[in-house]
Design goal:
With 185 residues, the protein is α/β, with parallel strands linked by helices. It folds into 2 domains: 2-115, Isopropylmalate Dehydrogenase; 126-173, no CATH class. Helices cover 28% and strands 16% of the residues. The protein has a 4-stranded parallel sheet with strand order 3-2-1-4, with helices on both faces. The protein has a two-stranded antiparallel ribbon with strand order 5-6. α4 runs parallel beside α5. The termini are far apart. 31% of the residues are buried. Residues 142-185 have low confidence and may be disordered.
Length: 185
């Protein structure tokens, strides 16, 4: 599996992204592609002790999406952003998943405009991982700012969620490996 990471997404980028990439490739059978300012990312990889066998590569992107950038304007105005290039890598088949710690609205905009929607999906979800003592819970989160109706159900294709598992409080009742969703009205 190849995971493409927006290496410029977090507040302290690219440090946390590089540290996470190195930790992941050393613990799991995967490859990580870091997208961002190549000079900064390469310098951080060297500082973090990148080894010859680490399955990490770098793709250069000259622009960064800020947390206060409007999602559509970030997409249109920053065509060489690390976020947009990361999404484009997956859309082109050079990655299996994209990860960003950046502006969530802009990530969604990039994904929608670059990759499009799956057939039948009206509103895509953003996935968050909540670490728990026994196992992590993966929660598809709705973008509440975009919701115009009191409740819009996340279209989950093949996900099988019990009706009782609709809040974080109910998560313990669900299987630890089951996808859960947090719904607010």
């Amino acid at each position: 599996m190849r995971v493409v990471v927006d290496a410029m997404g977090s507040d302290r980028a690219p440090g946390p992204e590089v540290a996470g990439a190195l930790r992941a490739v050393r613990a799991l059978p995967l490859e990580v592609v870091l997208v961002g300012d190549a000079a900064r990312v390469d310098a951080e990889l060297a500082r973090a002790g990148r080894a010859a066998g680490d399955r990490v590569s770098v793709v250069h992107a000259s622009q960064v999406v800020a947390m206060d950038d409007h999602p559509a304007q970030a997409f249109r105005g920053k065509p060489d952003s690390s976020m947009r290039i990361a999404v484009a890598e997956v859309a082109a088949g050079r990655g299996d998943a994209v990860v960003s710690a950046g502006n969530s609205g802009a990530v969604l905009a990039c994904a929608l405009f670059v990759m499009g929607r799956l057939p039948g999906v009206e509103r895509p979800a953003i996935v968050t991982v909540l670490p728990m003592p026994a196992a992590s819970i993966i929660t598809p989160m709705m973008l509440f700012a975009l919701i115009r109706r009191p409740l819009r159900v996340i279209q989950t294709s093949d996900w099988k969620l019990p009706a009782s598992c609709v809040s974080l409080a109910d998560a313990r009742a669900c299987s630890p490996n089951l996808l859960t969703m947090v719904v607010s009205c």
